[in-house]
Amino acid sequence: MLIANINGVNIHYKDEGKSRAPVIAFANSLGSDLRLWDKVVDQLKNDFRIIRYDKRGHGLSDTGNEKCTIKMLADDLAALLNYLKVDQAIICGISVGGMIAQSIAVCHPELVKGLVLCDTGVKIGNDEFWNERISAINENGILAFSDAILDRWFSNQFKADRAIEMEGWRNMLSRIPKAGYIAVCEAIKEADLSEETKIIKIPTLCLTGDEDLSTPPELVEELAAMIEGAKFKLIEGAGHLPCIEKPEIVAKHLNEFARENGYV
User: Fold this and answer.
1) Per-residue pLDDT, 192
2) What is the pLDDT of residue 166?
3) What is the pLDDT of residues 29-55, one digit of tens each?
4) In 3-state terms, the chain is what percent helix, strand and coil (to 5)?
5) Are 196 and 223 in contact (CB under 8 A)?
6) 217 sits in which H/E element
7) DSSP string for residues in 74-142
8) Nearest to 98 by CA among 252, 240, 258
9) What is the pTM of this model?
10) Is residue 264 pLDDT above 80, yes or no?
11) Rounded to whole angstroms, how far apart are CA atoms 222 and 227?
């Protein structure tokens, strides 16, 4: 187990793959830990150095006592990369991880070689949506709300064919500390990155599942249109987490993106 004290909180991370290869750093969604990328990493670890971590309030990382913001989460990732002596990385983030990736590209551009933004946007949801979720989880806990969350995470085919696996992801979700989950909900609710993201000049690829109910394809396509030169790719037969449902396709897009931009 690898733990580093980053900005006053203990952060759990993994550092694997080829030590002298180009780096890909992965940022997770709300309610998930670094296992989200297992099958994607399996496809990439022979050609890249892979950094994964549990953002504060998730997995094995501390929650911390400060109010959580997207910039704080981006600063955590930047500090982790500095701790690991990573000069530059492709940052691949999904959902709130994609917001973290956008923020690090604006606040710490020297660390970012390229961006892969999965199933995300400059703003996700509205105050009413997040207030209802926060209230429900405060009152009854994450497990009681897990059906609604999983329904938005996965495609209809996944829910029909991989029901046992889905229960494993439910266990991961429900064991996230409630305080950590709610803290990141508040960060997402307050975040609007539309002005910051417009200034990004880094090569960017935007990916999304065609059955994503949380960040629908049109939201991700709008994000791509805001970033100069960004490309948009739709992943068929996937919901909000194509890294789980279609890991080979996500890995293929990452590999192609790295090669097209001369990173390998």
Assistant:
1) 97
2) 95
3) 999 999 999 999 999 999 999 999 999
4) 50, 20, 35
5) no
6) helix 217-226
7) HHHHHHHHHHTT-S-EEEEEETHHHHHHHHHHHH-GGGEEEEEEES--SS-S-HHHHHHHHHHHHHH-H
8) 240
9) 0.97
10) no
11) 9
Residues facing residue 61 across a β-bridge: none
Q: Helix or strand or coil: residue 213? A: coil
Cα–Cα distance measured from residue 181 to residue 259, given in angstroms and rounded to the nearest whole number: 36
Which amino acid is it at 16?
E
Give backbone dihedrals phi and psi of 48, rounded to 5 degrees, phi first: -135, 155
Note whether 102 and 126 are within 8 A (CB): no
- Catalogue all structural domains in the chain, each as residue range(s) with its CATH number: 2-260 (3.40.50.1820)
So what's the pLDDT on residue 263? Answer: 83
- Bridge-based pairing of strands 112-118 and 49-53 is unpaired
Of 39 and 263, more confident: 39
User: What letters, b where the CB count within 10 A reaches 16 and e where it falls short, cover 195-231?
Assistant: ebbeebebbbbbbbbebbebbbbebbeebbebbeebe
pLDDT tens-digit series, residues 54-85: 999 999 999 999 999 999 999 999 999 999 99
Q: How many helices (H) and strands (E) does the chain have?
A: 12, 8
114 conformational bin, left if phi > 0, alpha if psi -120 to 50, beta if neither: beta
